Every structure is written in structure tokens, then in C-alpha cells.
Amino acid sequence: MKRLGTVLHALGDATLIIRGDDKRPKGDKPRMNSFVMDKTVKRIGKITSYFGPVENPYYIVKLDSRGNAQEVRRYLNERIYVQ
Asked: How high is the pLDDT of residue 13?
């Protein structure tokens, strides 16, 4: 399990915007459709896209469960991990 980054935005349609960690070695970027986990090692979704600078990308994660906006917001400022 590797650290992916910190959740910046939680959108109401079960989507998270994550700022990637800058401590990741070059060439060790996660792949598309990689499973994403929270701090309790529970799978919460998959990486669907990424954007921004190559050194510090931002990731878009689509959550598995369709929850309400309150459930999506609980991940704000949380560290997210990738398998």
C-alpha cells in the first residue's frame, strides 16, 4: 500500500479530487483504474483520470458507492492510499 495523496475536493456525484504526494519517486506513478483505499485499508474507489504537472499530479477518483454529499465530504483532507 502506497500513499497517493490528500483529498482536496469532494464532489456530490461521488468523485474526489486528490493532490498527489510529492515524495513519490519518478516513474512510480499509479496506473489508471488502480484501487484506492482509505486509512482503514478499505477500498473506496478507482483512479479514473489525472491532470496537472508531471511532478505533482492531481488525481480524480470515482467512489464505488453512490452516497450522498455528506458521505463524500467525510474524505476531505484525508490521506488516501493506492494498492
From this structure: 79
Torsion, Cα 80 72 17 35, to 10 degrees, reads 50
pLDDT higher than 80, residue 48? yes
**Predicted TM-score (pTM) of this structure:** 0.86
Q: What is the DSSP letter of 71?
A: H
The amino acid present at 47, given as its one-letter code, is I
**List of residues 6+ apart from 42 with CB closer than 8 A:** none
Burial of 82 (0-12, 13-18, 19+ CB in 10 A): buried
Contact (CB, 8 A) for 32 and 15: no
